[in-house]
Amino acid sequence: MTTPERIRAILKTHGRLERDVDALKDDSDLYQAGMMSQASVNVLLAVEGEFDVEFPDRLLKRKVFESIAAIACAVDSLTTPINDPRDASKAIDASP
Amino acid sequence: MRVLDLDARSYPRHALHQTDRVWAEKNCYVDSLIELIHALGCEPLAMLPFVNAIDFVGDQWTFFKPRHDELHALYGIDVQELNCWRPLIEHAEEHLGSGRLIATEADAWWLPDVAGTDYRNRHGKTSVILNDLGIEHRTLGYFHNAGYFVLRGEDFAGTFRLDAEPDPASMPLYAEIVRIDRLQFLPEAELKTRSEQLLEKHAMQMPAENPVLRFAVRFRHDLPMLQDKGLAYYHAWAYATVRQLGAAAELAALHLRWLDAEHYAVATDAWDRINKNAETFILKTARAVDRRRAFDAAPFFDECAEAWQQASDALQAS
């Protein structure tokens, strides 16, 4: 599975969204889709477990969990060694 | 019967509840009041000075709420306890039908807007403001958390405790009558003047000793217990502690910017630092609890303690 697909699977279990996860686009706002703060904490823990990563402090932000694409970007920044890990926060900061 | 003509499907939230806020939900009472004041056409930012006086009191940070006399001074809103001598639905019919809203405790189990947490999942006390009662079709329009919603059918029956055998051991929910018949719309300059007067009062009521330092001591003591009890317990703890601190800091900074960004720049910066640190800390603590491992929280507490002192000194000198 791709990173976004694995994140979708996590959201189905932990996101407690009001909308069907499969109906969301990668850049859909998860908070507007009903994800509450408590659920986002559980999503973080599940993502870290699934990808065997630990988000550094600069990625422990509400905004990082606002969409499947943003989470995937953060994960990829931690699992792709050739990338500068700062790119993820830059990309997320620049997202609309 | 309704007090305000609102459509839950298109209801525009106040900026304090937009999803780009760090703490989109603060606490249920304040959140629903923010939206009511917004829906009435007034500016809820004006009522926020009380958040500056947040304190750490043993097992929680202040569950901050505005004082009723301040709501009256700013908006002409009058809040009094509702004497629940008969079923809540009868009170709702009486008061909503007469233009008075009802703020009441409610069981989140029956509130569909919290599908992400408690709805049909866990019984829990929360606060809502009743606005639109449809007895015939069993519908209720209500303010809750960061928005305005409608519940129906079985949720209606559950909220008002209908269709169930009378339980003599069941206590009535705490509720308040919210009168808006003397609502006032002050010009922005006057609203800011009154809000600044409240800020002076609450600045003087900030704790004499740095509450972040007390929170740090308690956290170090409580962390092993949190790890033993697990994530469900952690969520309740985090709501009572870090969320209230972070949300208060975010609200305080937003209020000061609205009041006078330049004049209150030092205190605003301090509250911003606490807000951003709390955002990270609540997630790091979740990880420490989930994985039952050691966690050096000193950097968080050091920066927040310094920032709180900065805010306190700046506000009391203003």
Characterization of this structure:
The complex is a heterodimer of chains A (96) and B (318). By secondary structure, chain A is mainly α. Chain A has a single domain, classed as Non-ribosomal Peptide Synthetase Peptidyl Carrier Protein, Chain A. Chain A has 4 helices and no strands. Chain A is globular. Chain B has 318 residues and is an alpha+beta fold. Chain B folds into 2 domains: 15-41 and 78-179, no CATH class; 188-317, no CATH class. Chain B is 46% helix and 12% strand. Chain B has 10 helices and 6 strands. Chain B has a 6-stranded antiparallel β-sheet with strand order 1-6-2-3-4-5. In chain B, a hairpin with a 4-residue loop joins strand 3 (125-134) and strand 4 (139-144). Chain B starts with 27 loop residues before the first helix and ends with a helix. Chain A binds chain B through residues 15-18, 29, 31-32, 34-39, 41-42, 44-45, 48, 54-55, 57, 60-63, 66, and chain B through 19-20, 22-25, 114-117, 231, 235, 238-239, 243, 279-280, 282-284, 286-287, 290.
